[in-house]
Design goal:
The structure is a single chain. This protein has a five-stranded parallel sheet with strand order 3-2-1-4-5, sandwiched between helices. Helix 3 packs parallel to helix 4. It has one domain: Rossmann fold (3-Layer(aba) Sandwich). The longest helix is centred in the first third of the chain and has 21 residues. The protein is globular. It has about 220 residues and is an alpha/beta fold. Helices cover about 40% and strands about 10% of the residues.
Length: about 220
């Protein structure tokens, strides 16, 4: 059994961590953890939390269609919640797509260290950017240590070759039954309704009636055309 930790990547298509876990393990436990206290940067605001709520609903449906159940947990520490979940399901490894914000990388290092101390494997993947930042080097002529304009950066990216093709969605997933999970509504995310009853989130839902992987792919196809 492997745990796949979802963060900013609410999708099943072109998800390196999910696909590789499905190939290496017979059972996969997808999990999303809401732990805003463990975020070094500013936690998602109210509008972002509405997007998160709807994205989690859509992701849960997508995973259900593949045979898996999305586990939702709430806590103060990502490392502690993951450690507890790993023990519950008897997982041998945790898979996730890496983050790039400094505070996100620090959290991921803490998670990896705590899991490794319990002899749990950790595998992280590049699943968020077209090119990994550490692979795009500043040329020797840039003594200030940064890109002055777009074109030198663009050419440095092209020198690495084309980005990889999108990865397929796993054909089928299997998850162990009986794993405890919160619901989207019980995570504590902002619902968009003020204490006085004003439904300020309704305008967001009207503007974006579908907040999902399918809607994002539709927007992408329209942009590419």
């Amino acid at each position: 059994t492997a745990v796949v930790w979802f963060r900013q990547d609410m999708r099943t298509h072109d998800h390196p961590a999910l696909l590789e876990a499905s190939r290496q393990y017979d059972a996969v436990v997808p999990v999303f953890i809401w732990a805003p206290e463990d975020e070094g940067g500013a936690p998602p605001g109210g509008a972002a939390q509405i997007w998160l709520r709807e994205s989690l609903r859509a992701l849960s449906q997508d995973l259900h269609g593949l045979g898996a159940h999305l586990v939702l947990r709430r806590g103060r520490s990502y490392a502690d919640v993951l450690t507890e979940l790993v023990r519950e399901v008897g997982a041998k490894a945790v898979y996730f797509n890496r983050r790039y914000e400094p505070w996100g990388q620090q959290v991921d290092r803490q998670v990896a260290q705590q899991l490794a101390s319990g002899r749990v494997g950790v595998r992280e993947f590049a699943g968020y950017l077209l090119y990994e930042p550490q692979e795009v080097g500043v040329g020797a002529g840039y003594t200030v240590g940064h890109w002055g304009t777009l074109m030198p950066f663009y050419k440095a990216c092209l020198a690495l070759g084309r980005p990889r093709r999108p990865l397929p969605t796993p054909e089928r997933l299997a998850s162990p039954s009986g794993v405890c999970s919160l619901t989207v509504d019980s995570l504590g995310l902002d619902s968009g309704v003020a204490p006085g009853g004003e439904n300020w989130g309704a305008s967001i839902r009207r503007a974006w009636p579908q907040i999902s992987q399918a809607a994002a792919l539709q927007q992408l196809r329209g942009f590419v055309r």
